[in-house]
Every structure is written in C-alpha cells, then in structure tokens.
C-alpha cells in the first residue's frame, strides 16, 4: 500500500512538471465576494466568485446596473479596486453613493468597442495577478458595446456576436481563473420573433457569453407603490445558471429609490415569495434552527426581528432553498414467482373459440 502511495506521488510530481495541479489546489485560488444582497449570497453559496464570469440580464430598469454597483461597493469595502466600464452612461454620483460606493475611489471608463474592452480586461488580469489586489470589474452593458467593424462602418450587427466570441477566446483564461478579479457583465434582452411557446426573450450579443459565464442571473422587477407613486422596486433574481450551487433558486432584493437596498425587507420578501413562512391570515410564523419561534404580523417590527436573528434567518433561507426537491424512487422491484400466480381464464367474446394456441382466437 505504501509502495502504491509512493508511486502515485512520483506520478503526481511528473504531472506537476507539465503544469498540472490537483483540483483542490486549483479551487483554493477562488475567493468569494459578497454580492451586496444577503439573500443572493445565500442562493449563490456565499456570493460572487473570483476568476469566473458573471452575467446579469433582464429588461430595462429591472436592477441590472444596481446589482453591478452593489458588487463594486463590496469590493471597495474590502480594500480592492473597483472598475466600471460604463458604455451605457447610466452611472451617476448620487445613486452610487446611496449604494455605498466611494466615488473618489471608483475608476470609470467608456470603452470604444468590444476589442478595446477585452484588451483592457487582459491588462487588468495581468495587474491583478502581479499585484495580488482584489479587482472588481463591471461592464454596463455588453449589449451596448459595438464591435470595431460596426464603429468603422465595415460590417453590421452580426460582427457584434463574432467580436464577443473572439474576445472571450482571447481572454487570458488561466491567469484570469487564478486571479482575484470579479467580472460582472450586464446584458439586455430582446424579443425573438415567431416564438409561439415558452419564453420569447433572448439576450443580445449571441450565445458566447451564455457558455463562458459561470453564473447567470435573470432579473425581473415589480414596482413598489406608495399612494400610486413609484418609490422603489422588488427585484426578483433567479439563478438560471450557476456552477457553485444548485441553479434555479429565486430570491428578492428590495430597492428604494431614496436610499438603496433594504436588506431586512429583501430577506423577508425572499422568505415570503418562496412560501417559507407559515401564514395564517396576516400573521406569519417561522421556526429558527435553535428552536425559537418567531411570530409577526406582516412586516411589523420585522427589521428589529431580522437584525436580532440575522444569521439564523439566513440559515433558514439557505436550508429551505436547498432542501432536496427530488427523492429518487426505490428501484428495488418486488420479485413475483411465476408459479405463485394463478392463471386466470379470460372469457371469449361470442362467436369465438379458443384454439390450440392459447393466445390465438379464430372466428367460427
């Protein structure tokens, strides 16, 4: 046994000389950064991973840019560098500051085209690797970023998808996957023509990003009204793809236009929309992991309850989100001995008689 172990170690050394390493060693380089939305952190298994590509897509004014800004805010809080490629020109100081971003530290650039963005992205990857600094990069949005051929007037829309696909192939993927970089790309959606059944929406820029992304988040917002005045939105976030945890989990981020994210209300809505609260009329009941019972009427005093039991409430959300949804059936079949089954005489219809072959029936 010891000899086999020694031979295995020698073989591993030979592979390491060729640049191979164990998955454990490779995965150890991945760092998890909070998304800035506690329920979303739960749905993603902790937050956004470094060295992976994240896509956030949805309709206009549904919270895509805000999720990108919240990620940058978390990176800056950890002493990292926040970089915003603002092709849409959507960022403005007041909203960034409401979301917790120090605008004196946030770096911003408007890229000319897809090719320039990926060139600068590779430079940032090299900088992250050489310095060891945490860097958060957000592109808002990849749909608004034209290809060089489009800018020069040489080709049309088709060159956009080709440029994006070529850009991802040119990304220094080994250096990127081992870097401390969080890369988040927002994307717009379009309505596909001629779709009769299912979801008619498609994302812009071709299919390349769908394959390269490790995390894809679909956002859909519902308005919050106060005396018919829109004061915010509930952003429903669905993890349509994730290589970190089980996909297709839905959480809610409540965002008010006056002051930004409401953390307590986001957790409450995530529990309520997933029907994790036991409800009787307007009263709700929830059992915490330590056995403590919480009773509340609507959202009355919820903020006080949430911050007093934050860790346990997030654990409840995690346990219920990832509770087994499918239990494989017992595949062991009950064996029936043939001789134990009595043969039943099957009556014949009028005009028929049983022939020598039991299964054959011939008319008279």
Low-confidence stretches: 360-364
- Rg, rounded, reads 28 Å
- The second-level CATH architecture of the domain at 29-266 is 3-Layer(aba) Sandwich
Counted beta strands: 17
**DSSP helix fraction:** 25-40%
Question: Which CATH top level class of the domain at 29-266 fits?
Answer: Alpha Beta
The percent range for strand residues is 25-35%
- Span of the ends, CA to CA: 78 Å
Helix-strand blueprint:
Layout: H1 2-17, H2 23-27, E1 32-33, H3 38-43, E2 48-49, E3 53-58, H4 64-77, E4 81-86, H5 93-98, E5 107-109, H6 114-131, E6 135-140, H7 148-152, H8 158-170, H9 173-177, E7 181-191, E8 201-203, H10 208-212, E9 215-226, E10 229-242, E11 250-256, E12 260-262, H11 263-273, E13 278-280, E14 283-287, E15 293-297, H12 302-308, H13 310-321, E16 352-354, E17 361-363
Helix pairs in contact: 6-8, 11-12
State the main characteristics.
Rossmann fold, 364 residues, alpha/beta, ten-stranded mixed beta sheet, 13 helices
Task: Please characterize this protein's 3D structure.
- With 364 residues, this protein is an alpha/beta fold.
- It has a domain at 29-266: P-loop containing nucleotide triphosphate hydrolases (Rossmann fold, 3-Layer(aba) Sandwich), CATH 3.40.50.
- The chain is built from 13 helices and 17 strands.
- It has helices spanning 2-17, 23-27, 38-43, 64-77, 93-98, 114-131, 148-152, 158-170, 173-177, 208-212, 263-273, 302-308, 310-321; strands spanning 32-33, 48-49, 53-58, 81-86, 107-109, 135-140, 181-191, 201-203, 215-226, 229-242, 250-256, 260-262, 278-280, 283-287, 293-297, 352-354, 361-363.
- Strands 3, 4, 5, 6, 7, 8, 9, 10, 11 and 12 form a 10-stranded mixed sheet that branches.
- Strand 9 (215-226) and strand 10 form a beta hairpin.
- The chain is globular and about 60 Å long.
């Amino acid at each position: 046994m010891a000899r086999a172990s020694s031979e295995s170690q020698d073989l591993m050394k030979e592979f390491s000389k060729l640049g191979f390493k164990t998955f454990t060693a490779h995965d150890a380089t991945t760092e998890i950064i909070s998304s800035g939305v506690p329920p979303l952190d739960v749905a993603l298994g902790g937050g956004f991973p470094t060295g992976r590509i994240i896509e956030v897509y949805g309709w206009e004014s549904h919270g895509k840019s805000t999720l990108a800004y919240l990620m940058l805010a978390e990176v800056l809080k950890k002493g990292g560098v926040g970089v915003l490629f603002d092709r849409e020109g959507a960022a403005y100081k007041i909203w960034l500051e409401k979301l917790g971003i120090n605008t004196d530290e946030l770096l911003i650039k408007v890229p000319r085209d897809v090719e320039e963005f990926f060139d600068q992205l590779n430079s940032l990857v090299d900088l992250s690797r050489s310095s060891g600094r945490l860097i958060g990069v957000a592109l808002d949005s990849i749909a608004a970023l034209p290809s060089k051929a489009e800018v020069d007037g040489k080709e049309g829309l088709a060159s956009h998808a080709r440029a994006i696909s070529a850009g991802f192939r040119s990304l220094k993927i080994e250096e990127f996957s081992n870097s401390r970089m969080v890369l988040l790309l927002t994307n717009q959606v379009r309505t596909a023509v001629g779709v009769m059944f299912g979801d008619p929406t498609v994302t812009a820029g071709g299919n390349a990003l769908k394959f390269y992304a490790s995390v894809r988040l679909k956002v859909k917002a519902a308005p919050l009204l106060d005396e018919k005045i829109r004061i915010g939105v509930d952003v429903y976030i669905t993890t349509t793809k994730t290589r970190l945890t089980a996909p297709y989990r839905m959480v809610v981020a409540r965002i008010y236009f006056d002051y930004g994210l409401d953390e307590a209300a986001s957790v409450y809505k995530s529990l309520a929309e997933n029907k994790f609260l036991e409800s009787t009329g307007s009263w709700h009941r929830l059992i915490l992991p330590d056995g403590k019972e919480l009773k509340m009427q609507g959202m009355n005093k919820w903020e006080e309850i949430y911050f007093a039991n934050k860790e346990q409430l997030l654990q409840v959300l995690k346990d219920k989100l990832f509770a087994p949804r499918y239990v494989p059936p017992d595949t062991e079949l009950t064996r029936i001995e043939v001789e134990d089954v009595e043969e039943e005489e099957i009556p014949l219809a009028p005009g028929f008689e049983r022939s020598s072959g039991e299964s054959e029936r011939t008319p008279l």
